[in-house]
Task: structure prediction
Amino acid sequence: MNANDTISQSDDALQGIHVVAKPIGPACNLNCEYCFYLEKQALFPAGEQYRMTDKVLSAFIAGYISSQPTPVVEFVWQGGEPTMLGIDFFKRVVELQKPFAKGKTITNSLQTNGTLLDDEWCRFLKRHNFMVGISLDGPQEIHDRYRKDRKGRGTFEQVMRGLRLLQEHKVEYNVLACVAHETAARPLDVYRFFRGAGVEFIQFTPIVERMPDPQSAGQGLRLAAPAALGSPEGQGEVTDWSVRPEDYGDFLIAVFEEWVRNDVGRVFVMNFEWALNAWIGNPSPVCVHAKQCGRSLVIEHNGDVYACDHCVYPQYRLGNILTGTLQDMAARSLKSGFGVTKETALPRRCRECDVLAACRGGCTKHRFAATFDEEPGLHYLCEGYRKYFLHIRKYLRVMAQLLEHGQPVSLVMKVLKGPLVITKGAAGGTKSLS
Result:
């Protein structure tokens, strides 16, 4: 599909919709300095009850399952902090999903800061096969730099207690680690900490936020809303805690170099999985590095649906689950600045870039920089992404060759120690990283 093609209705149906549910909205028991969601309380009336009602919950579950053409329907529950709702809320979730499933497989994921997890929670999560994402930024001095409670105290010990409980109860989990300005300077400390803690699945997320613009400030927000794609008005200064472009690239490279020599097949870093996926020509499983976006919606506690987790602002509201369908709202999203626009709005530098297939211009929220010739729409982390993707190409090439020959990619670790003959039947050859 080229940039001028449109997606047919049948293609729409086949692709389905992904919805992130925020049943407690922006309410949270923590006060993380870099959080972009806590401030969204300013968009709701004073005294708002941040709890999804049974009416909204039922409408969402029924509408979401019916909107999916696939045999597996994946529910993702986030916040704020969703465990503040208590176990009974999620017992109700599981109860409501059953009659609507109609032969489909239903899965649930819960993103949590981990501080409220206990044995009862973990028994429930294990019994109902919830996948848990736990937010943990690294060793204590790194984690506690930004992730604090309402009294300004670090939360590392509470999160680690939650992590150990997940491990003890054998709950499936992964770690979401945010990479802020200071964090980027200590890549190996962060990665080795996770490895030592027995973490097998990690996703690194760059922290990038802009200082408020007039519109955001007028809404009582301390951070800027996403700018229209290709608009020069989107440029502005980032916060002090935002990761710097080359620093983020260097962070990923340092972790990759450690991982590719020691841990392939034992530790799974999602950022590296996405890069290999792009190298072998598969569509991106994440919207950040996908050609197009607009199908990853978010539903708030009151049933309002928005175009994206990063776009919970009045101008991006698509409707409400009680009065509209997710299919119609997704179609509206695709026509209102997302969809093919993510691809067609790329500046020329991106369109001609030799790592475009891996990067795809990055998240539209962060495309507020300008190219050397002042063309808008460049991703803020462009230099970091480019450095990272160029650096790991030689490794991805060998890993792809291993896959082509039916061999595990973990053999790349042996390649780094010397020439390796890769065979499949009568075919074979010596592969190296030179």
Remarks:
- Residues 303 and 323 are 9 Å apart (CA to CA).
- Residues 382-404 form the longest helix (23 residues).
